[in-house]
Structures are given as C-alpha cells and as structure tokens.
Design goal:
single chain, 153 residues, alpha/beta, Rossmann fold, 6-stranded mixed β-sheet, 39% helix
Length: 153
Amino acid sequence: MKILIVYYSRTDVTKGIANKIQSILNCDIEEITDDGKYDGKLGFLKGGMNATMGRASDINPISKDPADYDLVIVGTPVWSSNMATPIFTYLIQNKDKINKMASFCTCMGGGYDKALEKMAEVSGKQQISTMFLTSKDIDNPSEKIDTFINEIK
C-alpha cells in the first residue's frame, strides 16, 4: 500500500508525531505550509478565530498528488475544537483526490473529537483509523501510534 502523510504544525508538535509515524511506515510525507501566517501569539489567536469561523486560508503549493496514494494520513493540531485552517484548506482542495484516509490530531486537552469528526465531514471520507494525542500523550506516544498503525494495516 502506498501511503502519504500530510500534516500542518504550528509549533512542531504535530510534525514530531507525523515524523514518528513516517519512520515506522517508511512512507512519503508532506508538510502543509502557509508562510508563517499563524506564528506567534497573534497567529495563535488568528488561527483559533479562523478555525472557529470555518475559514479557508492560502497554503503553499503541494508537491505530492494525493491521488497517487492508496491512503492519505492527515495530521493537524486542534484549534478551538477544529482542525487547523491550513488542513481545512488542504482537504477542501484535495478531497476528490483522496482514495482512503486516516486522521490524527494533537491538542492541549480537548476538542479532538469534534476536530476528527470535522475532518471526516469535510473530506467526505470514512476514516479507516483516527488518533488523538493530548499534552499528556506527547512525551510517550508509542502505544497510541502503534494502535493507530495496526488499524491502518
């Protein structure tokens, strides 16, 4: 199975998890970028507001076509109980190219259930696996990652 991991990470937490999954699956990976529109304290506030309002944003062009993969794993931080705005934009732009999808999110505490639900809704894809990692899980994510990967296989 050909797998692509696509993720957005404002503070590198989601990036770290995406890289751990990538190293286990030995698959392709692509970071969604936005030229730093959500950096710093102001970016944090703007990101939460845009996520709450369901706004799309400008993202940089992607290099990997999701249609070329059997499975796309999408990772996002949780912003105000929603997926990050750049991931929302990616899913809107590419939902018709995604064959199968799995999702994961990182969060300080809650809101992950709504974010994962919204990712499935926007993509129109039944998720073959989902995973959330709270701040308590980030230092030792191995068990959750293993369960996530086993559900994918």
